[in-house]
Write a structure and sequence with these properties.
Length: about 475
Amino acid sequence: MSVPLLKIGVVLSTMAMITNWMSQTLPSLVGLNTNKLSVASGGTADRSTGVLPANPEESWQVYSSAQDTEGRCVCTVVAPQQSMCSRDARTKQLRQLLEKVQNMTQSIQVLDQRTQRDLQYVERMEVQLKGLETKFKQVEENHKQNIARQYKAIKAKMEELRPLIPVLEEYKADAKLVLRFKEELQNLTSVLNELQEEIGAYDYEELQNRVSNLEERLRACMQKLACGKLTGISDPITIKTSGSRFGSWMTDPLAPEDDTRVWYMDGYHNNRFVREYKSIYDFMNSDNFTSHRLPHPWSGTGQVVYNGSIYFNKFQSHTIIKFDFKTSVISKSRQLEYAGYNNMYHYSWGGHSDIDLMVDEGGLWAVYATNQNAGNIVISKLNPNTLQIVKSWTTNHPKRSAGEAFMICGTLYVTNGYSGGTKVYYAFSTNSSTYEYIDIPFQNKYSHISMLDYNPKDRALYAWNNGHQVLYNVTLFHVIRSEQEQ
């Protein structure tokens, strides 16, 4: 941009020089340099020289003449009329030239103003172009960085998806198996339709055996599909905002389809009132509820409602109580041997969360810690009727380091914290008695989770998140095992 600016400056300087030259030179070019009339002092005017024009209207006129006492000549003269210049051809030419000069001067001034304005515009454009050039460079650099980040993200996603290929291969085999079941079912349906038209065409005993065999195989297949491995947790869905910072809420996974009651327990200790809402709609939109008074206050937030009864940890004890809502009595109670209580082995958020009761596809569980296992988590399968321990598993994960935990298909999943950024990072399988470290993102929307339980009927996680009742959907991978793997 520097070369065009230099050229404009040269043009302006040249026009100024032309204007100055014309104002100084034009008078001499037309012969209008000042001619002085001189009369020698003390001398006599020479009338014979005839230096003045003869026409009195266009020249000086001698009005009178005399001689003073000292012999000097004294003359009285009349100056020519002022209109003589208007009749002078050279004067007219000069006036016309001066008018042209004035017009040219005005034109040059206008041109100078426009040039200055254009110069300012060009200077502003130069600044804007430099700014645009800088922005284009930044956009180009950002574009390169974005491409690099996108490539890295795609590469990472490919690495995540690569282990799923064997699972998808098994799904192909499972799809073929289901297709065979469908074909057999269609064949049997056709046979039954024909039987309605022609009774006795087939042996009923043979037909019944075929139907029973197909039903058994289908049920076995469904049982295998009922459980899977956790691979993802959805964004939270806020159902309601109520209660204190700590609490629990749940539904009964064994309730009939038309029973959608919600159970609500505010606080983690020294409280014994449980709210019953008729439906999830009433829970979300009204305060219509029935209040149940428990015979003892509960401890922590690890309560569950299962098959019409509530199971909870009695406050300041390691006693598990089963309370029947229909009869409003304690149907069973039992001490959980060696289990720590009264904030001895709580989750990292505290709150007397020593004993956490859970339900999954396999039934009722208790998660706690003992001195014998050095404060690490112990998982016990409980008989829901007698509360006796069916079997226990010891893990190597400290109970106090866990944020929260839940059971899915016999596997205990543990979060790395209860506030801020959270993820599911530890899993212990009771089916294989093995553990692994995983990385499943988990959005902690309200920054403090004091209850997290899985409901196998809804395939969802129920959470109490800092006074908000929240739901998370889960993604499970189902793998059908062949008969040889059973």
